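@channel anyone free to eyeball this complex?
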Amino acid sequence: MSLFLCGLVVLFVGGVVSLLSGRKPAMASSLGAGSAVVGSLLAILPAFAVLASGRTESLRMNWNVPLGSFFVQIDPLSAVFLLPILGLSALAAIYGAEYLWPYRQEKNLGVPWLFYNLLVAGMALVVVARNGLLFLVAWEMMSLASFFLVTFEYERQMVRQAGGIYLVATHIGTAFLIVFFILLGAHVGSLDFDTIPAVPSSLAGALFLLAVVGFGTKAGFMPLHVWLPHAHPAAPSHVSAVMSGVMIKTGIYGLVRTVTLLGAPAAWWCWVLIAIGVVSGIMGVLFALAQHDLKRLLAYHSVENIGIITMGLGLGLLGVHIHSPTLAVLGFAGGLFHVINHAIFKGLLFLGAGAVLQGSGTGHIDLLGGLVKRMPWTAAAFLVGSIAISGVPPLNGFVSEFLIYLGAFKSGIVGGLDAAIAAVIVIGSLALIGGLALACFTKAFGTVFLGHPRSIHAQQAHEVGWAMKSAMVILAALCVLGGVLSPLIVRSAQTVVGQITSLAPDAVETELATASSTLTHFVVVALLLAAVAGLSLLLRRRLLRGRSVREAVTWDCGYAAPDSRMQYTATSFAQPLTDLFRFLLHTHKEVRSPQGVFPPDSALETDTADVCEKHLYQPVFEAIRWSLGWFRWLQHGRLQVYVLYIALTLWILLIWKLV
Amino acid sequence: MMTTLKLVHLVLAFVAAPLLLGIINRTKALFAGRRGQPLLQAYYDIWKLLRKGAVYSRSTSWLFAAGPWIGFAAVVAATTLVPFGGLRAPIAFPGDFLVLIYLLGLSRFLLVLSALDTGSSFEGMGASREVTFSALSEPALLIALAAVTKYTGCVSLSDMVVATVPRLWLDAGPIVVLVGFALLIVFLSENCRIPVDDPNTHLELTMIHEVMVLDHSGPDFGIILYSAALKMWLLGQVLVGLVVPVHTGILWLDTPAALLSMALLAVLVGIIESSMARVRLLHVPQLLVGATTLSILAVVLVLR
Amino acid sequence: MNDAADIVLVFLVLTNLMLLGLSRLGACIRMVALQGIALGLLPLLMEGGRVELHGAAFAIAIILLKGGVFPWILMRTLREVNTQREIEPFIGYGKSLAIGTLILVVCIWLSSRLPLPEPAMSSLIVPVAFFTIMSGLFLIVSRRKALTQVLGYLVLENGIYAFGVALVDKQPMLVEMGILLDVFVAIFVMGIAIFHINREFDHIDTDKLSGLRS
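replying in thread with the prediction:
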């Protein structure tokens, strides 16, 4: 535990020192990134120890705030979330040092590093805090630090707007959390997690809903996700990776912790989680299909993967409710494993997108192309990430989805009617989501990296430096390892799943052992795949030796002057699917079609605004603004009148009370 | 002994896969009043291609060259998961059908990327349609397998197939029929047969799978043809295994029965191809959603 | 009745009234400085002779800050801004004085009605604290120039501090430190802000700021 606190201190101090040395960009950069890496590595060691041994480490200190106490604890659940938080933050810091370097002339580089370290420290503190007030303080620290990071390029209007939306959204969520904690600790008088007794079932339902909304805003459940597609593209890429990979997972952590605090789950909780998971997953991937900007596409995919995680958690909770150990263990194991896997491959994809952005200067998919030749390392890393996120073997994305599927097939369907219906819904949704994700990532990778460059940006793209490359390569290697070492990883989930489901350790161990042996077969198949692939490539080389291998142009059906703009664009690639689902997407199309015999310019422009934002939030906020217009007359713009209001109120209260 | 037999079945799958194509083409030819290609034509084609040189487009990268071969490896790995003729598959475990389906997904991923690598509109078009239709057919497939899981009580493909006995038809006949229809539609869609795709068309604008591989040549193209044949054999085995209730346990009965069922399936596909026209491209999603509906109906009946 | 403390309190009242009636900004700043020094001395006088180390250190800190640092920052700002007088306040100087006296009377009456524990050493301190707060607010409300607003804010804080001295026996350091830090930062920020406002608009009439409203 002391090591963990050491790590946090290193993060704080490193951030402040980095800020103070802002005049010298090299020093600020290396200090900031270095302290982030060192701090994260220091703090991650206790997490490994706890996960391996199953013991809980705690520390309790007094804090001079009413109802607050500095009570931190690393138990297996916290450890499972600490691993991706600190690991990805360390890698993203290495990447960020190089990514922020081009900004050293216009901006003080110490500022983003201060806030980055605060963000990492905040996230780590959130998952280990065991007092409601400490939790909220860490939560706010995390949110505010990420706000300042999102608005790093504040001179762009889009970034300012994104920052505003993010700030409002996160504070709405925090408001729900404040109510949640007040209700939780009200009848006990203390906000320490270990003093909260069994909660009565009427209150438990309300608390669960508050937690779903409060934590769901951070996690990105539909329809609370509207800040994600704005904030993640606006932030610098290493920050987007951290936000999308691990910050939204703190919402999932909060939800799981709530479930462990509230005791036995009611049936409708599981249905709520599964419903949220299905809706977020399907709508997330559909909206991702319709995007033109690479980072916005990845942001919507985060929504989709949160949906998958929530589906796993919902199934797990259902397993706890109907006392089916297999379903509980497999659901939670799959969901938590997907938390870690998503952190790895989403971090990798965002870092890749940042590399594309820096190497070519644009993130607009339809302006890129052919980058695989100019940015080979980035392309290879992005390919690994795309395969992983599509849930295709042999990488880690497949394994976590496989565990959820296995739970549904093995014990969901053959269980009672409720479990069977939930299982079928989850199976169907996961299948659809998997297919759509594959479509989306073939689109993204294919349009950005393959084919011909579609614009001057892509023609002049250059590969990025070694820091960014090494971060991406490490993450890609982790994707592969996550798939190949999955039997061992699943075994090590014993402590954490046992804690969440509060099942007997023997039952958990049996289930995990069965899952582990299943995964061992899978690894055998994966190794077979690798072996046959290697042999086939050798065969190809052997076959082509000594034969004529020529180069020519792509088959163009005889057209004499093909242009790189004639390639299939990303929008066209996704068009069959986006048209099919247009009742959900409401894509706005502007067409200037060719007219006449020798048509001049024609154009097609599509724009898919977020449905929830356009039809739910904007009308509500417009209504609020309209009704507040009635009070316009109170605003003179004169400072003195406002202070007069205060003074008058003070006088009136005094006189009223004292007379 | 069992292991050797399973390996024999595996080799049989590798060897006999292109024969299916031959049977289908012969059936179509008979319907059209022609004599048709030799049954072993697919073998001749693949052999010819493997002996040729290759032409690569300047727009392509290493992905274009490596994609088909890694895709082939994926299909080969998937073959080890499929049971044949009353015997369990060489590698069988709970949830193996998921690995099977997603390995075919990997093969499709790489093929689509190879197509996009050429930078041609035709390949892009084909790729786009391919991913659309496969996204819609996967739910049908998995929900149908969910129904099968429920009525057989097994979670491994091999167990499910072994449990398909005449008794099952008596107990859950209508459900097996529904599952069979759904799986047939998915089979036709995944293997690019009419009514989803026409394997004989030469108009780029109407192709799906054919146009994705337009620029491949030589050994690459040969291995693509072989992978497609192997994939058809695989999916056919799954379909036949789950529908035809001949799993008595006596090897000398089961294996010939399985072979005969595969041949009959090929003839059936030939008949379907000859008697129907291709469905309009805009209506193919409806067809696939229909397949999903059949699967859901099967599940509903099973859960009742 | 503690004579020394009473003298200081009466002095405070006088400084407040002077602030309400003066138009030269430099003199106003000096008045506030004197107020600060007086307030620093006040707790020492309230104890009635017992001077402890941390109390003395605290008093010196307050005197330095309120009597020295803040006025210095404000004088510097005044020089940059190049204004001498507050001409045309919302409420004229004569009227301000009259209203100020009225406020003083009402404050004395109100404090007599407040259910407070008997303050140590002096019964004048609560009304004076009240009056200081109210005159600070009055300054903010009735003047135009941003610098006067800052002065009003300082006077307000002085009043709150006096109130704290009256009510709290042992002076919890944390609360006092908190207030001090708060004021320090505020003055700093305001000084900078006034400088920038003057640079942008060439004046520091807060009245004209309402033109920013869309």
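from a first look: Chain C has a mean pLDDT of 79.
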